[in-house]
Structure formats: C-alpha cells, structure tokens
Amino acid sequence: MLNLFLIQALNGVQLGILLFLVAAGLTLVFGVMDLINLAHGALYMVGAYLAATLAGLTGSFGLGLLLALPASLAFGLLVEALVIRHLYERDHLDQVLATFGLILILNEGVRILWGNAPMSVALPEALSGAVPLTGTLRYPLYRVAIIAAGLAAALLLHLLVHRTRLGMQLRAGATHGPIVAALGVDVRRLFRLVFGLGAVLAGFAGAMVAPILSVDPGMGDSVLILTFVVIVIGGVGSVRGAFVASLIVGLADQLGRSFGPILLRSLMEASAAAQTGRTLAPMLTYILMAGVLAFRPAGLFPARGR
C-alpha cells in the first residue's frame, strides 16, 4: 500500500507540474490582459505536435524540444497578431466565442497537416531508465525529469515576475492597466509578450508530455478543463495560486483514482466499490473546487487588487 501511495503521489506531482505550466500562461493572459482564451489548450496541443515533428526530423528528442520552444513562441505571436489583438477591446462573451472558434480551427488544422492518427514520440534513451525509491520500488526517470523541468520553469517564471522590470510591469498591468499605460509603457507590446510567454509555457508542457502520451488532435481540450479548475482554485491572476492549486489537483486526481475504490470497499461490496470509485474519481477535482469556493470564493491565493 505504501509503494502504491508513493507511486501515485509522484504521478500526482508530475501531473500537477504539467497543469501548472499550462495554467501559469493562462492565468497571466487573463490576469494581465483580461482576456479569456479558450484556445490555450490548443497551444498545448500545437506544442506537442511541433516537438513530435521536430524530434522526428532531427532524430533527437532534446533537439526537437529546444526547437519547439521558439516555434511555439512564433506560433503564439502569429495567433496574437491574427486573432487575439482584435479581441482586446471586446467583452468576455466575444472573447469566449472567438477563441472557441479558434479551437475548432486549430484542431481541424492539425488533422489536415498531421492526420487523425495519433503520433508517438520515442522516449529519450538517456531518460529511459528508472530511479530507485524504496527497496525494489523504482520510478520512471523521464517522469522525474518532467518534475525537475517543471520546477525549473516555475522558478524562472517566479524570478521573471518578481525580480525583473518586465515582471514589475506585468504585476502593475494586471491591477492598474490604465496607469501603466499613462506612464508610457507600451501596453500592446506588453500584451504580445504575455501571450507569447503563455504560448511557450503551454507548448513546453505539450512537448514534455509527448513521449508519455499519444499526440492527437483535441488533446488540449481535456487539459484546458483541468486548467480552468486549477485557476479557479488558486485564484484568478495568481501564479503562486496556480502552482499550489496545480499540485493539489494533480494529487487529488491521481490519489483519488487509486485509493477511492479501496476506501469504498469498507462501505460496500467490492464490485459496487469499484464501479462507484470509477464514477466518482473524475468528479473529485470538481468536488474539490466546489469545496474551496464555498469557503474562499476568490480562490486560495487571489491576486492583489482583484
């Protein structure tokens, strides 16, 4: 039982780190630009496809990953120039409708370019092993690498937001946008940088997950739903809240799926417990979100000024 708990806890942390990479970009876009971007999950999907394609062309996953990051940035800036910048002055309903249409376009575009069949990416040979945990228990090295890379990205994002002049402008723009513009800051340029940064974070998450999940059209849709749950729990516009909430959601999802049926066996028959556990497990994160909102309607760490 202890071994199962350790494995599922690490899986939960790994899922939480991936969710944070996606949620951080989305919460920055909403917090700074006041833009609801439903297509953010599609940027995660595009990042995975770019990494899979570039890894196949170069024969190296590491090189493909490195090339996918600037490619994701370029794609994000292109989307911002073609679609997003025309939504800055529109209300949230227009933004939701436009970015939902963008999801359909990007999903269909992926099908046209890469086909309907899922793509697979070979696990990097250097990261194909496992690390020992306790006794004979081992954990996949690549998943450890995902956790380490995600934590490094979170640290860099923290330093960017809290230790740089750009970060100061981002934080000020999130709460006092008109004043920041009046002080001479090019707000449109700031918005482009924020959207590009969000696209890079989402693309990085998609690229990192490509070797352990199949890359297929629409893979960003399910991630987007969990990402919004993370943002609501953590507090809209709060990167710190997104980090904490991502770990909570990741652990709740993985531990709930594994231990839910086991705990239910003490209350009902094994077959009924298994069926009930399978039904309740996907709902657990939403039950958690409802519980948090009941006590903290603005989330665990609401951004200052909101």
Question: What does this entry look like structurally?
Answer:
This protein is mainly α and 306 residues long. The protein is 73% helix and 2% strand. A two-stranded antiparallel ribbon has the order 1-2. Strand 1 and strand 2 form a beta hairpin. Helix 1 packs antiparallel against helix 8 (187-209) and helix 2 packs antiparallel against helix 3 (61-82). The longest helix has 32 residues, at 2-33. The N and C termini lie far apart (43 Å).
Features:
single chain; 306 residues; mainly alpha; two-stranded antiparallel ribbon; 12 helices; globular
SSE succession: HHHHEEHHHHHHHH
Termini, distance in Å?
43 Å
User: Which stretches of 5+ consecutive residues score pLDDT under 50?
Assistant: none
Which outline best applies?
globular
Question: Mean pLDDT across all residues, rounded?
Answer: 87
| SS summary, helix count | 12
Task: Explain briefly what this protein structure is.
With 306 residues, the protein is an all-alpha fold.
